[in-house]
Amino acid sequence: MVYISSWDEFAERSIQLFRADPQSVSCVLTSRYVMKYRHCDGKLVLKVTDNRECLKFKTDQAQDARKMEKLNNIFFTLMARGPDVDISEVSGKEQSEAQPTKKGRGRKQ
Amino acid sequence: MVGSLAQPTHLPPYFKLRKVSSKSAREREREPSLFAFAMVLLQPDPFLNELTSMYERTTERGSVWVTLKRSSMKSKAKRNKMTSAGETIEYRCLVRATDGKKTISTVLSAKDHLRFQASYATILKAHMSALKKRERRDKKKAGDGQTKQEDLKKPPKKSSS
Fold first, then answer.
1. In the predicted model, is pLDDT for residue B3 greater than 70?
2. Which intervals carry biased composition (Basic residues) (chain B) (predicted)?
3. Best residue in A7, A8, A39, A89 to probe B by mutation, most B CBs within 10 Å?
4. CA–CA distance from A33 to each of A73, A75, A97, B79, B95 (Å)?
5. Alpha carbon B77 to chain centroid distance?
6. ipTM field
7. Does A96 touch chain B if contact means CB atoms closer than 8 Å?
8. With an 8 Å Cβ cutoff, are B120 and A77 in contact?
9. Which residues, other chains included, contact A32 with Cβ-Cβ below 8 Å and sequence gap of 6+?
10. Of A28, B1, B55, B160, which is most buried by a Cβ count within 10 Å?
């Protein structure tokens, strides 16, 4: 299991993993985002996988829970609306990411 | 309970009758029952209520898993039929939650998810209280009442004494 130590790296890679889900291949979407919380240990573990690659993040910090909430919003949007959705409108988090693959804002380069 | 049976009077006291299955309540709890493996599909609001009680139940021990996955909620045959007929398949967000024993789930469409994610965020914030809060600045007591550390951006200036 790959535990990623940087939150930003985990967030970016997990979003990429989600977006790259080969929907056209089998019409079955295999990526999922799992969150496990143990109150007795005070631990939070996040996992994003497409059953081939797996990214995990473990923490016991409250500030990471806040970051996770933002990531949750992104995932909800991605899942409900589709992987091509321009999520920079959801939060300012994705503005540093590379251009979205399909939906350009206007000009193609 | 042991003492609920009428004891035979003609036998010495050490031949006490006991019920065969004298399990404690805790052991009975652990027994796997068929219903434990049923996936309960709920509407978003009952799901949220049930999720809240799951978090409340697992404070002393246990974990809560929440899984988010995109799904059309249709079987493969139906999906293939729809694609060949030219109909677009509507995808929705499947949310599952479990405490190891009981599993609940709900399905969100695009219009449900905004409301759901707000309530969901509230629930998480309320219940994930066991995580550590980092005391970063001990020297700089900048601004009183700063219990939350939303230190993503630095404070613009030092607080005047």
1. no
2. 131-140
3. A39
4. 12, 8, 20, 23, 10
5. 32
6. 0.76
7. no
8. no
9. A48, A49, B67, B68, B69
10. B55
Domains by residue range for chain B, with CATH:
35-127 (3.30.720.10)
For the four alpha carbons of B87, B93, A64 and B62, in that order, the dihedral sign comes to negative
Q: Bridge-partner residues for A46, per DSSP?
A: A35, A57
**Cα–Cα distance, A20 to A30 (Å, whole number):** 11
Strands in B12-153 per DSSP E: 39-42, 64-71, 92-98, 103-108
> For residue B116, with 0-12 CB atoms within 10 Å meaning exposed, 13-18 middle and 19 or more buried, which class applies?
buried
Q: Round to whole Å and give the CA distance between A92 and A55.
A: 23
pLDDT of residue A3: 94
Distance of CA B28 to the CA centre of its chain: 22
| Each residue's pLDDT tens digit, A57-75 | 999 999 999 999 999 988 8
The radius of gyration computed from the CA coordinates of chain B, to the nearest angstrom, equals 27
- Any idea where the domains of chain A sit in the sequence? 2-82
Q: B42 CA to chain A: closest CA distance, Å?
A: 17
**For residue A15, which phi and psi values (nearest 5 degrees)?**
-70, -40
Q: Which of A85, A47, A36 is nearest to B91 (CA)?
A: A85
Give yes or no for a contact between A60 and B131, defined as CB atoms under 8 angstroms apart: yes
For A2-82, the fitting CATH number among 3.30.720.10, 3.40.1260.10, 3.30.70.890, 3.40.50.720 is: 3.30.720.10
CA pair distance A62, B97, nearest whole angstrom:
21
Distance from CA of A109 to the nearest CA of B (A): 30
| 3-state percent breakdown (helix, strand, coil) of chain B, nearest 5 | 35, 15, 50
